[in-house]
Amino acid sequence: YHQLHTKETRLSKFNQTEIKAMLGSYTKVLFVRDPFHRLIAMFLQGMGISPSFSSFVQEVLDSGTHNGSMAWKPLVSLCRPCLIQYDYVVMFGFLRQELGHLLHRAGLPAGSLLPELTDSQVQWTYRWLSEQMFSELSAQQKKRLSHFYRWDLAAFPFSSSFLSD
C-alpha cells in the first residue's frame, strides 16, 4: 500500500477507503490454532503466574475478553475474520502441508524455505497434553472455556478440540 505508515499503526486508524485499498493490495494470511492448545502453550511458556494449569485457566476466565492478555484472547476478537477476507487460513498442526502450498502459490521454492516440521508428532503431542491438562479442569471451567472461545470454535474447524465437546 502506497501510504506511509509505521509498524505500530493499527488498521482502525485508517478510514474505510484506505482500509479497503490496503487490504486489497496484500495477500492476507491468517494462522490459527486450537484455543485450548494456545492456552497450554502459554501456560508452558510461563505466561501466567499460576502454579497449576487449572489456576492459570481460572486467571484467563477471570480476566475476560476485555482485560485479558492478547495471548489468550479469542482469535475472532483479534483478527476479525468476518470483516477481513483472508486469502489463506493456515491451521497449526498442518503447517508443513499448508505452508508448502502457500509458498508454491506465491511462486517461491517451497522445499528450501520450509523448516523441518513434523505435523503428526505435533498433533499427537498436543492431543496427549490436552487430555492431561483437560482432566485438571473442573466441569465449570470446561463449560466456561467453551463459552469463552465459542466464536473461535464456530469460525474455524477445530472439530477435535476438547473445547468443542
Automatic annotation (TrEMBL):
Pfam families assigned: Sulfotransfer_2
UniProt record, GO biological process: carbohydrate biosynthetic process; dermatan sulfate proteoglycan metabolic process
Location in the cell: Golgi apparatus membrane
EC number: 2.8.2.-
GO cellular component: Golgi membrane
Domain of life: Eukaryota
Cited InterPro entries: Carb_sulfotrans_8-10, Sulfotransferase
Alphabetized UniProt keyword annotations: Carbohydrate metabolism, Glycoprotein, Golgi apparatus, Membrane, Signal-anchor, Transferase, Transmembrane, Transmembrane helix
GO molecular function: sulfotransferase activity
Chief localisation class: Golgi
Coiled-coil intervals, chain numbering: none
Family: Belongs to the sulfotransferase 2 family.
Protein name: Carbohydrate sulfotransferase
Source taxonomy: Eukaryota, Metazoa, Chordata, Craniata, Vertebrata
This protein's encoding gene: Chst8_1
